[in-house]
Amino acid sequence: MKLATEAFNAFCARYDKEEDCIDALFHAKWPDGFRCPHCHCPQAYVISTRKLPLYECRSCKAQTSLIAGTIMEGSRTPLRRWFQAIHLHARPRSVNALELSNLIKVTYKTAWLICHKIRHAMSQADSEVLLTGVVRISDAICYKRLTSTFELHKQEQPVLIGTSDDLEGNIGFIKIKHQSKLTLRDKYDCPDPRPFVAKHVNPESAENVILTRRYGKTMNKTLVWESFYLSSWLGRVFRGIGPKHLQVYMDQYCYQSNHHSNTRFASLLLDSARFLTITYPALTGRSNTQRSLQRSRVTRRSKQAV
């Protein structure tokens, strides 16, 4: 804990000024230099009259914000707070929304939204990588409970775990995907792996995928134990996660496994800069119309109370 605190304080000192964050984000967004998103011109005028600079293309005159097209687009939170959040998510233990709120001094709602936007970047980044080479897939149970019935406990969640392994069976790249309970006859049934293979495995490796079960003589203990490590991590950091958002937390777990800790912040900053943001209505499943109706009801109740 002391070392983590010292590392966080050192990071905050490194990116204490917005100018430092602006420079780092610029290079993460445009590693080969500025490119206009409209005409791809490499030259721009810098308009520095705002908190964040605008870049006006010399060719088409289109103006581009530094955070446009990133997970930070539309955010009023200072960049240094975003950088601190990205750093904390890049740590092996990571951070939950309440801890983030206290550490970077933002409201819980803002912290919750930042966490999910960073997880969105993680999910998008790892979705670009297909499992290849020696691919092993096994079913498993997240939040496994010891019960005497054949039915899945309400907390138990079926998953498929796939990995690209070396010849010694060591995990190179991992994907864990939440599966529906509706397709399973009982807790010993296995989800159909074919959709997983079609979506997440390189076609050249699909025919040679090694499928195993979470029990029996052919059980791949390395894969099955990943479900226990995942469950432990979810419980330790987040006190458990319900099925609605479980997949993005699984993606975060896999992202941390798939990227070395020494370079994880640089990778996560790059991914945060190149993926579009996800909105609050999209995360909560509420449309803008629903939010407007709710505000209208609150307004009417306030007037009636007066």
The H/E string reads HHEEEHHHEEEHHEHHHHH
Provide the structure class: alpha+beta
The major β-sheet equals:
4 strands, mixed
Mean pLDDT: 91
Number of helical segments? 12
Contiguous low-pLDDT stretches (5 residues minimum) are none
| Proportion of helical residues | 40-55%
Termini separation? 52 Å
Radius of gyration: 22 Å
* Shape descriptor: globular
Strand neighbour order, sheet with most strands:
6-5-4-7
Roughly what fraction of the amino acids lie in strands? Answer: 5-15%
- What is the count of β-strands? 7
Structure description:
Pfam families: Zn_ribbon_IS1595. It comes from Cohnella herbarum. The protein is of the alpha+beta class and 306 residues long. The chain has a domain at 134-243. The protein contains twelve helices and seven strands. The chain has helices at residues 2-14, 18-29, 79-90, 97-104, 108-127, 194-200, 203-206, 221-238, 246-258, 264-274, 280-284, 288-305; strands at residues 44-47, 54-57, 63-65, 134-142, 157-165, 171-178, 210-212. Strands 6-5-4-7 form a four-stranded mixed sheet. A three-stranded antiparallel sheet has the order 1-2-3, with no helix packed on it. Strand 2 and strand 3 (63-65) form a beta hairpin. Helix 3 (79-90) packs across helix 10 (264-274) and helix 5 (108-127) crosses helix 10. It starts with a helix and ends with a helix. The mean pLDDT is 91.
